[in-house]
Design goal:
The protein is of the alpha+beta class. Helix content is about 30%, strand content about 35%. The chain has a domain of about 80 residues: hypothetical protein PF0899 fold (2-Layer Sandwich), CATH 3.30.2320.
Amino acid sequence: MHELSIAQAIVNQAKDLLAKEGANRIIRISLSIGVLSGIEEHALNQAFPIAAEGTPVEGAKLEIEVVEASVFCNDCNAEVTVTPPFMVCGTCMGSNVDIRKGRDMIIKQMEIVA
């Protein structure tokens, strides 16, 4: 389950932020995760408390926003939302597309307590 290593990386970034800000605890972490990222939301929600246990991040609420995938069509120049695994342009039905959104995981916000 690679979500545990992802959760550990999130906890490490949170601990780095605490040290930088001179704060004591993280109470909320907000993420956006693309549908093409390969990260399973449920598995990450299960792994996060394990990774946070015994750290100043323990007990923090993990909020996850799932981001849809979008592609840019090189044939008709349209940018459209797609539903994996169908990576075709919804305008011209072409498959000459580049992924624009949906592969990332971004830590959007962390709420800290001094």
